[in-house]
Specification:
about 15% strand, 12 strands, globular, alpha/beta, about 290 residues, Rossmann fold, 9 helices
């Protein structure tokens, strides 16, 4: 596991993004535009990675000075068909770039590749995923590492929240939207699970830095701190000074990940010492959601 510790940032000539309409893609596009970096963001309607026709299209698009950011995925993976479709997308992509030389490849994976652990998870922690989503990302990581012959950076983000998140999943986004409308926030159990939540703003900043510094290797995208869902709900309710109540419902099944999933973010600090990642208890939620 090696990393580029060159501290001289350099704008690439062009960044190609597969997964144009995604939550992360929209945010990183805004940052690249502000840096005056040329981008070509590609949607499914332009290049359908599940189709064999995508192979020739990819080959024609990518040039030798390009940075390729691969975010495209049918996620979260909930069944076998979704799993196979995602692997087919990766396979068609590597066929499209077969023997092509370009500058840098960045893959947005997931922390779901890691096994559960009561210890801080770092980039060398055990990867034995128990979910189809984790299996998909780990398999795609291995496909890309095996067949793409340019410097590769694999980013593994934890739970992401922020503006324009389309999922409205259990956590900061949903809690804020409920509290904003003075609706009650319902927690599973006592909301005691401890998780690492990171804003899409910081995820995009880390992606931008991996592009500018041509970072390669594996990097966890995290804050390094955990908060319970109860504490997150309480922070949001207090920050809005709203009438929402925090309610509880009986948990169905065991605590996800044993109730604890924490990450070591020391590698981010080493690679990007000037990067300041916001903790959820210090975030102005109006800025991010």
């Amino acid at each position: 596991m090696t990393y580029n510790l060159n501290l001289k940032a350099k704008n690439p000539k062009r960044v190609i993004i597969f997964g144009k309409k995604g939550f992360i893609a929209k945010n990183i596009c805004n940052k690249l535009i502000k840096k005056k970096i040329k981008i070509k963001a590609i949607s499914k309607s332009e290049v359908n990675l599940i189709s064999k026709s995508s192979i020739k299209k990819i080959s024609k698009i990518i040039k030798k000075d390009d940075v390729v950011l691969f975010i495209s995925a049918n996620a979260p993976v909930k069944n076998e068909k979704m799993l196979l479709d995602n692997l087919l997308m990766a396979n068609n992509f590597v066929l499209g770039v077969n023997k092509k030389k370009f500058l840098h490849f960045i893959y947005i994976s997931s922390d779901a590749v890691y096994s559960d652990s009561k210890k801080l998870i770092n980039e060398k922690s055990k990867t034995l995923p128990e979910s189809l989503h984790g299996i998909m990302h780990l398999t795609r990581e291995n496909i890309f590492k095996l067949f793409i012959k340019v410097p590769i950076c694999i980013l593994r983000p934890t739970l992401i929240f922020g503006k324009k998140d389309p999922h409205n999943g259990y956590g900061p986004n949903r809690f804020y939207r409920l509290a904003k409308n003075n609706k009650d926030i319902n927690l599973f159990g006592k909301g005691e699970e401890l998780r690492d939540h990171i804003s899409v703003h910081d995820v995009s900043e880390i992606i931008l830095n991996t592009i500018l510094f041509k970072t390669f290797g594996i990097l966890n995208v995290c804050t390094g701190k955990v908060f319970s869902f109860y504490n997150i709900a309480k922070i949001i309710v207090n920050s809005l000074n709203c009438k929402s109540r925090i309610c509880y419902s009986k948990r169905q099944g065991p605590l996800p990940h044993g109730g604890y999933r924490a990450f070591n973010n020391s590698l981010i600090a080493e690679l990007f010492p000037n990067l300041k990642i916001a903790l959820i208890n210090k975030i102005n939620f109006k800025q991010f959601i």
